[in-house]
Give the backbone structure.
Amino acid sequence: MTLARLDAAIARRGLRRPEFLDPAALAARTALPENVVRGLLRGDPMPADTVNDRVRLRIRALAAADLARTGRRMSELAAEVSHRLGVSEYWARQICDGRKVPSVELLHGLVRFFGIEDGETFFTAPAAEALNRALLPALHELEHPEADPVQALMARYGVTGTDLRAHGSLTRDQLERVLEGVLRSVLPPQGDAR
């Protein structure tokens, strides 16, 4: 349902699906394998798994992302998990490697450790549900552009489309000055009837 609504909203805005729905980014956001995300976006059936499989694989994906982002080794990550969650380094490594399923209490601690907003369901939800949760903000943004300050500014100045990803660090005031400057450079001065 969400994907169909997203496709309709993308088409209405004249966007292209691959530019808006990046499987790699969705995989990172959901801790799902990229091939699973691509399959779900194509409408393939959900992969068969158990809740234990989901928990182990998503923790392993989060640990791998942490290692890639920070450049540290698994032993360093396991030591930090061990220290913060009060388990042995051996057990922490087994969990971060995806070899063991954590207890509910430890899973709750991993939610805090990795900063997961969706709570424990991030780890336990079936793949389609996890992807759906990741797609909902994009759907809301497309269906309600007025809620997005950048989209509201663009609408105010009549800009129908642009790629502002490189300007993600601009404040609203800075972005408004950029848009005003662009418009001043292409529109004739007031009173000039060119």
